[in-house]
Amino acid sequence: MDTTQTGAAQTEPQVIRCYIYAHVARSNPLAIERQIRDARALAESLSSPAAEYKVVRVFQDDGGSGLSTRPAYEEMLAGLDCGEADTVLVFAEDRLYRSLELQKAYTEMSARLGVTTYSVQSGRLVR
Questions:
Q1: Is residue 79 within 8 Å of residue 57, measured between CB atoms?
Q2: 59 pairs with which residues across the strands?
Q3: pLDDT for 90
Q4: Are 125 and 93 a contacting pair, CB within 8 Å?
Q5: Do residues 106 and 76 make contact, with C-beta atoms less than 8 angstroms apart?
Q6: pTM of the complete model beyond 0.70
Q7: Which residues lie across from 57 on neighbouring strands?
Q8: Residue 78, class by beta-carbon neighbours within 10 Å (0-12 exposed, 13-18 middle, 19+ buried)?
């Protein structure tokens, strides 16, 4: 066993499983790519020797308004409900939910499941 001078064993960082969610109202591949790139950078910036924020899946909805059906968003929620991720990373809060009803539902689900949400623009949002 590898030990430091104080005799303490070195430990592996805790892995925080992250989903990234990206959404644009109109088809714009560059906007989606930017959201995903910036969310990946956020995961790196949140990581520390004690905790690694590891992106396990990226979800993206492209071309629909915030109030229409968003299949990737629904798939992400199902994965969270199954315990597949601990954290959601988004570029901005308005990419995640576009109405008070959706915000309330997401916040309640996050609290129930212990899911933390971070925004590139605003920092920690939920939990």
A1: yes
A2: 21
A3: 96
A4: yes
A5: no
A6: yes
A7: 19
A8: exposed
- The residue to which tokens 């979800």 are assigned: 59
Quote the pLDDT of residue 124.
Answer: 82
98 against 122, higher pLDDT: 122
86: which 2 tokens?
Answer: 């601990």
DSSP per-residue string spanning 87-124:
EEEES-HHHH-SSHHHHHHHHHHHHHHT-EEEETTTEE
pLDDT at 27 exceeding the cut of 70: no
Contacts 24+ apart (CB under 8 A), 63-66: 63/24, 63/25, 63/26, 63/27, 64/25, 65/25, 65/98, 66/23, 66/25, 66/94, 66/97, 66/98, 66/99
* Residues 106 and 112: beta-carbon distance below 8 Å: no
φ, ψ of residue 57 to 5 degrees: the values are -165, 145
Residue with tokens 């623009």: 121
Q: What is the mean pLDDT of the chain?
A: 87
Question: How confident is the model over 33-87, as pLDDT tens digits?
Answer: 999 999 999 999 999 999 999 999 999 998 665 556 789 999 999 999 999 999 9
